[in-house]
Design brief:
This protein is α/β, with parallel strands linked by helices. It contains 15 helices and 15 strands. The chain has 2 domains: 163 residues, Aspartate Aminotransferase, domain 1 (Alpha-Beta Complex); 255 residues, Aspartate Aminotransferase, domain 2 (3-Layer(aba) Sandwich). It binds 4'-deoxy-4'-aminopyridoxal-5'-phosphate (PMP).
């Protein structure tokens, strides 16, 4: 069964024929809401890669909660851990107080993620969202170096609070700030020009030139794949050169792995393939394993400089998220098995997208791993493709400053058959659009 509900707002008939299923959202909820405009149905239940509306329509979910659902919806092991925890009246809210749930999470993160990779980073729990992690990274970099500027890249996305927005590229989102966005400088991301120009040649020159008028920054913040800004993926050698440049000038390197991390590109961290060692790492979205809010900022030990409570927040100890995160780490990251399967799915998605592109002159591949998509010469085509996909029962979103990229982001737990099915629908949607 495919969806038949159309948005009263979009059809301009909200007054005359209000849909009782969506009326309260459209009448009372702020108009800032956006995903529901592309998918104006009421999602009720979800499991794995499927979401079911309250009228019983099933959708294949290749959106994965914008990257917060890498292990799919309601994974039984993760959900089971949460249900057990709540059933036993364990502590839910704890600020930064010690609890067994937090102890288990920190232990699992140390044993499954940090130690096997030889990482001695401290784990700061900065608050529940990705932008909390980014703000923490920016603040600590400034505190550690005494320098106010942060370099970010064209088409970067780092979050909606003022610090994160100052290092975000999108002009519409930046204008939403309503205030000047300070102390950031933008540099060209990999392949911003012609692929031949080393894209941070400018940085290298101005940092070395005491007459350039450009102050040395505290840090550079970068996504290895630009999840919101159009799915450009930095090459490993570009990341390595950037890392070496930062080392040379004693500028801190922050990797924002909020969207590309937690296995999205194969390895747990998206920068592992490049072999770089960031000073600061931001993680959130899929860290909790089932969409509960949780983020961490990983800091080289010498950057762990806050006085107690110098940086704090009420929701730094959401124990249900520690419980689900621990279950996810133990279930998926105890050995290489999951990572190997994810790599197979990555290869399957890449070849599936390339096959779709192969039929056309006006489209090309963007992204890496299971964070990939298709960019069209016609900037409006991607939105049409996403709408056609929705009509056929597939949830995919768009990415990029003009929403010009179709973004395919299935759960990492997607089966081979589900991925093939989704790719078949996508191919049909591309042809129909
Ligand atoms: N960094 C990146 C790379 C992101 O993709 C996002 C969210 N799309 C954020 C930061 C902000 O995360 P949140 O929305 O949880 O604040």
């Amino acid at each position: 069964m495919t969806a038949t509900i159309t948005s009263p707002e979009k059809s301009g008939e909200s007054d005359k024929r209000a849909n009782p299923a969506t009326d309260i959202f459209e009448r009372r909820e702020s108009q800032v809401r956006s995903y529901c405009r592309s998918w104006p149905v009421v999602f009720d239940r979800a499991r794995g890669a499927e979401q079911v509306t309250e009228d019983g329509t099933t959708y294949l979910d290749f959106f994965s909660g914008a990257g917060a659902l890498n292990y799919g919806h309601n994974h039984p092991v993760i959900k089971g851990a949460l249900l057990d925890y709540l059933a036993e009246d364990n502590v839910v809210h704890a600020l930064d107080m010690y609890t067994p749930a937090k102890r288990a999470f920190l232990t699992a993160f140390e044993e499954k993620i940090l130690q096997p990779r030889g990482m001695d980073h401290k784990i700061q729990l900065p608050g529940p969202t990705g932008t909390n992690s980014v703000e923490t990274a920016l603040k600590i970099a400034r505190k550690a170096t005494g320098r106010p500027y942060i370099v970010s890249f064209t088409n970067a996305f780092h979050g909606m609070t003022l610090g994160s927005l100052a290092v975000t590229g999108n002009s519409m989102k930046r204008e939403g700030a309503g205030a000047p966005l300070y102390h950031s400088q933008t540099a060209p991301y990999d392949d911003y020009f012609d692929g031949a120009t080393p894209d941070f040649h400018w940085l290298e020159s101005v940092w070395a030139d005491s007459g350039s008028g450009v102050d040395l920054p505290a840090a550079v913040i970068v996504e290895t794949v630009q999840g919101e800004g159009g799915l450009r993926a930095a090459r490993n050698e570009w990341l390595r050169d950037l890392s070496a440049l930062c080392r040379r000038f004693e500028v801190l390197l922050i990797i924002d792995d909020v969207q590309a991390g937690c296995g999205r590109t194969g390895a747990f961290f998206s920068f592992e393939e490049a072999g770089i060692e960031p000073d600061i790492i931001c993680l959130s979205k899929s860290l909790s394993g089932m969409g509960l809010p949780l983020s961490v900022t990983l800091l080289r030990p010498e950057l762990d400089l806050w006085e107690p409570a110098e940086h704090n927040g009420t929701f730094r100890g959401f124990n249900p998220a520690f419980v689900t995160a621990t279950a996810a780490l133990n279930e998926f990251w105890a050995d290489d098995a999951f990572e190997n399967t994810v790599r197979e799915r990555c290869a399957q998605l890449t070849s599936g997208l390339l096959a779709i592109i192969d039929e056309r002159e006006d489209a090309s591949y963007r992204g890496r791993g299971l964070l990939a998509g298709i960019v069209f010469d016609d900037l409006e085509r991607a939105e049409k493709v996403a709408a056609e996909a929705f009509r056929r029962g597939l949830l995919i979103e768009t990415s990029g400053p003009s929403s010009e990229v179709v973004k395919v982001m299935p759960p990492l737990t997607v089966t081979e058959e589900e991925l093939n099915h989704g790719l078949t629908i996508l191919a049909e949607a591309v042809r129909a659009a």
